[in-house]
Every structure is written in C-alpha cells, then in structure tokens.
Amino acid sequence: MTYRGVLIGCGFFAQNHMHAWQSTPGAEIVAVCDRDPARAEQFRRDFGVAESFSDAAVMMATLRPDFADIVTTVETHPELVKLCLSHGALTICQKPFAESYAAGLEMVKAAEAAGRQLLVHENFRWQKPFRHIRAAVETGEIGRPHFLRLSFRHGHDIYANQPYLARVEELALMDVGLHLFDVARFLMGDVDSISCTTQRLNQRVRGEDAFVALLRHKDGAVTSVECSFDSRFGEERFPQTLAQVEGDGGSLELLAGYRLRRHGPDVIAEEDVEPPVPLWGTRPWHLIQESVAAFEAHVVEVLDGRAVPQPSGAHNLETLALTRAAYRSARQGETIHMAPFIAAGAER
Ligand SMILES: NC(=O)c1ccc[n+]([C@@H]2O[C@H](COP(=O)([O-])OP(=O)(O)OC[C@H]3O[C@@H](n4cnc5c(N)ncnc54)[C@H](O)[C@@H]3O)[C@@H](O)[C@H]2O)c1
Questions:
Q1: Which of 56, 86, 94, 330 has minimal Cβ neighbours within 10 Å of its Cβ?
Q2: Digit-coded pLDDT (tens) for 221-245
Q3: Which alpha helices (DSSP H) does 125-167 contain, by range?
C-alpha cells in the first residue's frame, strides 16, 4: 500500500523532505502547498508532484490525504496542525513544535480529540551516530549510563539559508537546544531539573547564539549540553554534534569526523558511523539529509501500525517545556524543577 501525503511549506528545509519522500517506499506526496503560489508551483515542477495549492484548507478538504507534512516556521504550526488533524490526516510538524507550551498542548489535545497521530519532525535522534549510541546503551554495552555530554559548536553561517534566524528573539535554544534536549531524553531518559546560561556572541543577531545547560535526569544521571553558532575551528564541524556517554561498564565517545570510540573495561574500539550521502544529498548536509530519510521511513511504519511515533507531539511537549525552563533559568540564574514548572503551565 502507498500512503497519500501532502507537504505544506515549500521553503529551504522542505527540499530535504521532498527528496527523502521520493526515496521512501510506501509513501507518495500527491500535492504541495505554499501560501506563495509561485513557490508551490516551483516545488510541484521540481519534484514531479501532481498538484500545487496556495491554501492548505482547500488542499486538505479536496484531497483528504493519509498524512500531512508541515514544514513551515513555528508561528504557523497551531493553525496548520489543527487543520490537518481535523481532516483525519496523520500529521507531522517540523520543530520547533510551538512557540509556547500552551500552544503545544493545544495541538496535542487536538490530536487526542481527532484520534490521529501527531509526530514532531525531530531528526537529530534519527541521525545515524545517535541511532548507534542508543543501540549500544540499550544492549548494556557500557553498563548503567550516568553522564552524557552533547556539544554542538560551530561557526557555519546559518543565517545565509535561514535569514529569519538573525531576527528572532529566542535563537539557539529554540533552534537547536530542543534537538539536543530531545537527544538527551532519547539516550538518558526524562529530566527532573535544568539550569542554563546563555550568551550572545555575534552582535549582528538578536537572540542568544550560545548556551550551556545542565540537565539532571530522573534516575540521577546528568547531561551537559553545549551549543554555539559562533565558534571557530580550523576544520568546520557543522552540523556534527560531538558526544560522550559514560556508564559504570564503559564509555562511548562520538568524535569529529563521525568516529565512534567504544571504551570497554580493557579495550578501545573505533567505528566509522558516518551516514551515507543520499543520491540527492551533499556534504556536509548528508548527516541531516540521511536522518530526514530515516525519520520519513519511520512515519510509514507508524502509518502501518508497526511503530509508535518517535517522537510524538505529547513527548515533544516535555522537550519544549525544557526549552522554556532553560530560558527561565538563564534569566533568573536558578535551577528549574520540571514537575512544578510544567504544573504551573511552563511559563507560557
Ligand atoms: N529539523 C531540522 O534539522 C531543520 C533544519 C532547518 C529548518 N528546520 C525547521 O523547518 C521549518 C521551516 O524552515 P525553513 O528554513 O524551510 O523556512 P522557510 O521560510 O524557508 O520556508 C517556510 C515556507 O512556508 C511557507 N508558509 C508559511 N506559512 C504557510 C501557510 N500557512 N501555508 C502554506 N505555506 C506557508 C512560506 O511561504 C515558506 O515558503 C522551521 O520551523 C525550521 O525551524 C528544521
């Protein structure tokens, strides 16, 4: 069976979505939509899609697809997600899921009311190196993990392809922080408390472009998350995240150049975990492009009833709450405990 899908938002990142859908067995994009009709039509031609629309409501009512892939910026998500769910579609929403916890909760409730699956396109956990690390942790290779370090620090000009990022008030935590918090939860479990400090290194951007966060997980493990969009290295590392996981039986190190070093009690082994470059892909984007393809293959498994959403909107709501808590911690200089913070509405 081939599921019929539509894509909404024909901008920069949606090109990766479209290429990946074209190589995903079991799914076909039957229409694309952008409020700018010229963009929608360009996508229709470039990707050989049957139809293009400039109004998502008209497209959903006309086609009633099995799934909808929303690749617009955050402020449009609540309206579009609720629209797609109301037409019975499994709905995928790009990150950031929502501008506020309240807006995210509204979408999760809409999915429950519609009885439809809602997924957030969180592709970092689908990156090949993190799939390998998770498998190693699950098989008990390093014993009980008690420490994780994630480091996403680079100097790549992200503002060239995404000029809106230079104008947003909330930058690094909302753009990449939530990816890293999702990976921390994926590898180490849910979080009890967080503290965070932010920096604005590039004075030409409005929001924070660097932060360091410390997460305490419910089982006592800790994660240190470092992120910067203004770091200088002789060899650019973008878009790689470096990682270190330590357990009571060994450690794993994800080093630059996709080298995964496994430290057992008395052995050190190194493995190359670089993802393949998709036929339609280019370096250094292949890390992200392959993860988009892996996520979309997962969506077909969810449509088939063979997998549960990784992650669902409900799961991602807690990641969003962590991001909101990180902002409060940075502002007030205090540790935020997640249970009371969420019970009080996660700020906004
Ligand atoms: N997961 C990742 O690795 C990753 C990477 C880059 C961007 N993103 C996310 O993808 C999203 C899109 O980013 P982008 O850089 O492609 O943005 P973009 O501005 O290039 O594209 C968004 C498109 O959506 C269209 N649009 C907006 N509202 C619409 C509506 N109501 N109906 C139809 N079309 C509408 C716009 O006209 C535009 O063409 C953002 O949320 C961003 O954070 C994710």
A1: 86
A2: 999 999 999 999 988 899 999 999 9
A3: 128-138
CA of 69 to the centre of ligand 1 (A): 11
Alpha helices, DSSP H only, in the chain?
14-22, 37-46, 56-63, 77-86, 101-114, 128-138, 172, 178-188, 286-304, 313-332, 338-343
Chosen CATH of 125-274 out of 3.20.20.60, 1.10.3720.10, 3.90.228.20, 3.30.360.10: 3.30.360.10
How far apart (Å, rounded) are the C-alpha atoms in residues 114 and 297?
24
On the question of pLDDT at 266 being above 90, the answer is no
pLDDT for the residue numbered 265:
80
**Neighbour order of strands in the sheet with 268-272:** 268-272, 259-263, 250-255, 242-247, 145-153, 222-228, 210-217, 191-199, 336-337
Whether the pLDDT of residue 58 is over 90: the answer is yes
Distance 71 CA to ligand 1 centre (A): 5
Residue 230, judged by CB atoms within 10 A of its CB (0-12, 13-18, 19+), counts as: middle
Domain extent listing, the chain: 3-121, 125-274
Please report, in angstroms and rounded to a whole number, the separation of the first and last CA atoms in the chain. 42
Q: How confident is the model at residue 267 (pLDDT cuts 50, 70, 90)?
A: confident
| Residue whose CA is at the smallest distance from ligand 1 atom 26 | 9
311, 119 in Cβ contact below 8 A? Answer: yes
Contacts with 267 (C-beta within 8 Å, 6 or more apart), sequence order: none
What's the CA-to-centroid distance between 216 and ligand 1, angstroms?
A: 32
- Token code pair at residue 154: 């680079």
Cβ atoms 202, 178 nearer than 8 A: no
CA of 39 to the centre of ligand 1 (A): 12
Q: Is the CB of 13 under 6 A from ligand 1?
A: yes
**Considering the domain 3-121 in this protein, what is its CATH number?**
3.40.50.720
